[in-house]
Predict the structure.
Amino acid sequence: MRGLVARWKEAVRATALPIAKRIAEAERTDASDDAGLGRLESVGNSIAGSPALGRATAATADKIQRKSKTEFQRLGIKLREAEPALGDKISKWRVENVKLVGDLFARERGMLAKVLREGEGRRYETLVGEIENRLSVAQSRAELIARDQVLKLNGQITRERQQAAGIDEYIWTASGDERVREMHADLDGERFSWDDPPVTNEDGDRNHPGEDYQCRCTAYPVLPELEGEEPQPEETPEPEPPEEAEPAIPEAVEAPELEHGIEGAIVAKATELAEAIAGSSGRVRDIVREHLDEALVGATSKDVALARKGAATFTAGAMPGGANAYHDWSGEVVVAPRVKEGAQRAVARLAAGEYDAKFAKLDPYAPGFSSYQRGRFARFFDDIDNLRTVVHEEVHGFSRTTPYSYGGVGRILEEVGTELTARDVVFGLNENLAANEYLRLSLGSYVREIDAVTGVLQKHTGLDEAKAHALIRKAHREQVCAPKPEFKSTREHLDAFMRGLDLPADKAKLVESDLLKLGGSDGGIGLPTR
Amino acid sequence: MAVLGFPLGEPPRDDVEAAARLLLRYETEAPLGPDGVSMFLQMCTEPRRVITRFAELGGTVE
């Protein structure tokens, strides 16, 4: 869509600005002006009918359809091999898109003509300003149309697939951020039938999620099997009955890899992650969760405890002292705007395949590495580091940590465990990231804390650094992110971490003693002396 | 053994005003660095309010 709008802008500037100049110089407008505007009309028509628009709508539809498929697989819902009804819906959607784009340019052409006709006696600069304003309006409207159409098609595909899978009801799930309209926020968490949509706007219209204008809500399927209900028997047997939905949520992360292969999975995941970051959605958390190992499945967290998707919000906000981010105890992740932008760039680059095999071998300090190459590498590096920050804060969301355990050694262990896990998740997004030695050795924060805790473990266990890190990650995932109550004190955090290390008693005693020294003599709130 | 702590003291978790003032002291007397500030905020029960108050008191936010 951006390319098409750029083409429109170029044509408008080439055509309308000379007319504006003649008007401003008090020359009479004549038939040649109308001919100029006529050219604009033909440009608008050719854009609406262009193969580029056709390709763009087809690619968008395909992307939405694949993304929806991935989501269904994640939920363990099998889809039919053939989906003829879906094909019809997508065809109609594409036709509607082309019409909307055509209408947009026709309307804009009319507005430009009005600006020019009423321009007599005005300065050239004023007219140029008004023309540029119209171009901005055209761009905004094109973006609105694109966004609205994507949401609508996604809603239609969701409905079609859920009903084909025998799912009759859904939970209305709002996107969970401050932009959700009040009526949709009220619907959040409510259960509806696909046959009976709720009223979703002041006009009394009834819609399913995604159908209302610019609606970003989603329909979370109600799986009767998961609720202990008997599936409703079908009244009329069909030659090809819908496949049964399987209650298999945690394992579904494997599905896209099987379908697309490693590269496909990377692209799908990165794209999904990019959208989640851009949309400030709790989906970031879900993606992080999928990347954590099985020990984390079922973990409760400050976010998940709210018991619905999108419960955590993800916002960019001002930070003091160059800080990158924090995980608010209410379930809100707040990152510096530059971090959010960098993370989005990183996932866009991942999706575009820019972190390729060549990247894996880049070393900014190798002989012959030019300063230009070094600068480019630094930008790639920084973006991935921003993505790591986002993931880091999301991992906090799974921890049993609270403000009352986050002090002294509890604070250090929480950051070390979270950071090592976050790095692991990020490197898991693309094998080329992990293969780049410079990145692997340099990425991340809390270096001082990680070195200190790793040093304690190495001193008393003899493990090498990689194995010590793996042991810290294991302890953090299994005990600190475990599905157990939140920590009420630093002591509880330390005890959980020690259980996760699972060391022989003599070594455990030495490790615990040295960890306590790291945390300072105060030990944080609630750390009693043993 | 290194002690990884806050030289001017840890933030009072539930006291927004005191935490904001302490963060201001760190800014001028003992800069914490990005990770240190993140940890400081994470130790407060209402980090967003601490940042707002910190800015009101003249602290630098970006």
